[in-house]
Amino acid sequence: MKHKTNIISSSKSTEGSRRMCFIFTSRAQFFIRGAFSDPVRVKVEGFVGDSAILSCSIPENEIQDKIEKLHVIWRDDKGKKVCDIIGGSIAEDQEPEYKVRVETFPEEYKKGNFSIKLSSLQKNDARKFHCYITRDTFQKEVITELHVRDKPEGRGNHGALSLIVLLISFLFTHILPFI
């Protein structure tokens, strides 16, 4: 049986910087209640056949050695389950189209980095991906807009470039907010 996830977000509150997010799945109703700040928006460009890093992180001090209480929920803009990281472990019930193509970085979880690597990019991967991080009262949303283009002639696979993009994403979300 195929399970569908719908993401429904309300509009901004009168404060202008908070919103609510609710996630409903066909198996169970899973609510992420509470106030989310405006989502962080990221644009990523990838090439057909290559990989792309979709970044999602929180400051390391927000983890406070409570990784087991963290829920990280990755969905595409169609509500399909890309990847869930619950208590530091990856849930096994991903959508088949993502199951073998999504990689996480468990050694980075304690640093607040829950980015994923989407491999073997296809043109139809071009869409928005939503990452929700929740722990007790802390909640964050990151929306990554992935653009996929044909690979230019003579371009090889640059895995080192993906690592650099991952590190830069991490710096932007952990260092720049405090400067």
From TrEMBL:
PANTHER family recorded for this chain? BUTYROPHILIN SUBFAMILY 2 MEMBER A2-LIKE-RELATED (PTHR25466:SF14), T-LYMPHOCYTE ACTIVATION ANTIGEN (PTHR25466)
> Where is the chain membrane-spanning?
159-178
Q: Which GO terms describe its biological process?
A: cell surface receptor signaling pathway; cellular response to lipopolysaccharide; immune response; negative regulation of T cell proliferation; positive regulation of T cell proliferation; T cell costimulation
| Family matches, as Pfam families | V-set (PF07686)
InterPro entries, A to Z: Ig-like_dom, Ig-like_dom_sf, Ig-like_fold, Ig_V-set, T-cell_Activation_Regulation
Highest classification ranks of the organism: Eukaryota, Metazoa, Chordata, Craniata, Vertebrata
Keywords linked to the UniProt accession = Cell membrane, Disulfide bond, Glycoprotein, Immunoglobulin domain, Membrane, Receptor, Signal, Transmembrane, Transmembrane helix
Annotated ranges, domain Ig-like: 39-144
Which Gene Ontology cellular component terms are annotated?
A: external side of plasma membrane
Q: Membrane topology per the record?
A: Single-pass type I membrane protein
Specify the protein name: ICOS ligand-like
Q: Which gene encodes it?
A: LOC113040678
Q: Where in the cell is it found?
A: Cell membrane
Q: Which residues form the signal peptide?
A: none
